[in-house]
C-alpha cells in the first residue's frame, strides 16, 4: 500500500472454477457510487443479489448512510470489526488517513483475496506470505494490536485476515489433512492443504471462549444443523483456539457468498429482523423447502442455546457457478447476550424472551410439517443436554459451565 493507490473505478468479476467472469463496474461521481452490470453478464442470468441489485441494464445507485452507498453484495466483501481495525491501523502506518479512503479504495485492497467468489480490479491486496504458522504467536500478536501496539506485525496479520468479518481476531489458514501443520492460507495453498479459519479471543472474552464455541458447534451438529468441519487447537494459555473449515471454498473452487445483511440491506447493528423474515428469504432465494427447514433448525438452536448475537451478518447463502442458491453452513454459534440481553433476531415479534411457543408458531407460519417442528425442538433439547460433559471434556472453566448451564435450563 502507498498513498497513491486509490481507485476511482472498480471492475468486478466472479472467480468460478479458476475463470474470472466480468460482472460490472463501480464508479463514483459527486460523492455518489454508481454500479452498472456488464452486458455480457446480463446474458448469463447469474443473479448475484436478486433483491437489491437485480439483473438489469443501466446505472444503479443507493443511499449513502447504509454501507457508505455500496450495494450490499459488494459491502459483504469488506472486512469489519477486527479486519477494519487492522486495515485502518496499517493505512496510518503508511501515511494514509483511513477517513480519506473511499469504499472503492477499500474494495481495491480486497482485490482477489475476499471471502466468496467476487474479485475486484485494480487489485491492491497485499501479497500472501508462505510458510508455517504458530497459533500462540499469532494470538500474542493480535493482543498486542488490540492494545494499540505491535506496528511491525500489522502487515502479516492483515494478510492473514483477508476480508473476514466480525469483532474477534481471525486468521485464514491452510491445514494439512492430519491437522498438524498450519500454513498461510488465503491464496495459494500448499498441495494437500485445505482452507480453514481460526479465531482468537479478545480481552472481553474468557480464556475458554474458543472451547465454548467448539462445544456449541458439536451440539449444533447433534441438533441436525449443517456445520462445517471444526477443530479445537491446543493453546499454551487458555482452553484452545476454535477453527472451522471455510465453506466459501470447495477445493480450489470459490462459491459466491452473500449475507442476509447484504441481501436485505439490513443494518446489522440495529436489530429489526425476525426469523419469519429469514425463513421467507430462504424460501425465496433457494426455492427449496429443505433449505427453509435448515434455517428453522438454526432458529431453534440459537434461541434454546442462548446464542443472542444472531444478527443479519451471521446468516449467509452460497451460490454456485450454475446460479443455484443454498443456505450456507451455520457459523458464529456460541453462548452470547444480544443487545440489551435480547435476541438480535426476533421470533414472531418477540426478542426479549422467545419461547418454545414462539418457535412452534414460527414453524407453523412457514408451513413446515408438524413432525419437522417437533423433531427440531426435541433434537436441540437433547443436544444441549450434553453441554456439561462436553464442556468439561474440552477444558471449559467451571464458572462458564455453570453460567451457560443455568441459561440453557
Key features of this structure:
409 residues, alpha+beta, five-stranded antiparallel sheet, 15 strands, HipA_Ser/Thr_kinase
Topology, pairings included?
Layout: E1 9-16, E2 19-29, E3 32-37, H1 39-44, E4 59-61, H2 72-75, H3 82-93, H4 103-110, E5 118-121, H5 135-146, H6 154-161, E6 170-176, E7 182-184, E8 193-199, H7 209-222, E9 230-233, E10 241-245, E11 249-250, E12 253-254, E13 256-259, H8 260-264, H9 275-286, H10 289-304, E14 316-319, E15 325-327, H11 356-365, H12 370-384, H13 387-393, H14 398-408
Antiparallel strand pairs: 1-2, 1-5, 2-3, 3-4, 6-7, 6-8, 8-10, 9-10, 11-12, 13-14, 14-15
Q: Care to give the gist of this entry?
A:
This protein is α+β, with helices and mostly antiparallel strands. Helix content is about 35%, strand content about 20%.
User: What does the average pLDDT come to?
Assistant: 93
> What is the tally of helical segments?
14
Report the helical percentage: 25-40%
Helix/sheet category: alpha+beta
Approximate strand percentage: 15-25%
The largest beta-sheet arranges its strands as: 4-3-2-1-5
- The geometry reads as globular
Total beta-strand segments: 15
Largest sheet: 5 strands, antiparallel
Specify Rg, calculated over alpha carbons: 21 Å
Topology as H/E string?
A: EEEHEHHHEHHEEEHEEEEEHHHEEHHHH
Number of domains: 3
- How far do the termini sit from each other? 51 Å
Poorly predicted runs: none
